[in-house]
Amino acid sequence: MLLYRVRKDFGVVTTVVGDDHLDKARTAPPPGAVDEVEARLRECAEFFALPELAHLPPTRGRQALDEFALTGGYDHTAEELLVGAKLAWRNHARCVGRKHWRTLKLIDARDAVTADQLADACWEHLRVATNGGALQSVITVGPRPLPDGREFRIVSPQLIRYAGYRNADGTVTGDPAHVDITETVTRLGWRGEGTRFDVLPLLISTPDEPLRWFDVPRDLVLEVPLSHPNYSWFAGLGLKWHAVPAVANMDLEVGGLRYPCAPFSGWYVNTEIGARNFSDPYRYDMLPTIAKKLRLDTSSNRTLWRDRALVELNRAVIHSFREAGVIMVDHHTVAEQFVDFVEREEAAGRRCPTDWSWVNPPMSASLTPTFHRLYDPPDLDVRPNFVTRSPGSGCPVTGA
What we know:
Blueprint: E1 2-8, E2 11-17, H1 33-48, H2 58-71, H3 78-91, E3 105-108, H4 115-130, E4 138-141, E5 153-154, E6 164-166, E7 172-174, H5 179-187, E8 202-205, E9 212-214, E10 223-225, E11 240-242, E12 246-247, E13 250-254, E14 257-259, E15 264-265, H6 270-277, H7 287-293, H8 305-324, H9 331-347, H10 356-359, E16 385-388
């Protein structure tokens, strides 16, 4: 038999892989399998050695690790899962809003076994997160993969997204980023109204059901119509955006275990909407329209017409969310909050992996304090964390 041994703070753990009674000619584990087992065991041991779990009986860590060593898994308590999710947020290199990691709330949906049950958990997520505009940071955690590797997944990139309809002339009505998933749910039987802001249904994949879609209840979709504090014509553009950004296409890894169904949400930075969703040429591409309304000279890049239109669009986003009573943070404030977070982490003796290109805003970056400093590299292998799904692990229909 094969023995994998990993030394921990609380002793030596031996994982047995194979069996003396099995045919000795059985194929050896695939390359990297031993390393994967050891890495997962190490993550489990390190998790239970965290200061945040110091109040647990020492036997809890030994029990979890021994069970993991023998079966390849164990069950987190709700408290352990919430601690892990908070630390995953704290450790995630691409998030500029990590200062608020301690505020995360957990919806435990690990007992959901059907797509209907997972959809209900997502609706509860939106209720708690939206909170009448006083947004709360929330994570919903569904079941772990089955022993045979089949998974429960939210296939949609976020719980709320807008459809994109491909027109005969090559243009797109709605959000061009979601044309493929719109066509997928249309083939499955969904029919939108054909507007620029049709809320897509939620796509859910479970091991024992075909891919299913669920209309997001309208009363759970809080939207903010955009207006401008100085230009009355801006409201006539008919722009709006949903209040809750609930990311659903990343896995949560905690204590050696992976949760492939773990949508999480906080609140928007204005530039996510104003400088990306509405400004990117491959999204809603609104800068030329706004520049025309502002009567800017668009004949040359040297007139900086895009820059001027971009500022006014972001003013409208910030103004509109404030008028609607919906939490949002501007890119200057969140940058200051992030630097404060990094300094607190350094004072606590913790490394803070950071992707510089993600924590700096897509406008006026050099005016923010995040621009003018270096960080721990983003590729530090820190757990717990939110991780991008590996290639081929997504929905077989959409590839999401």
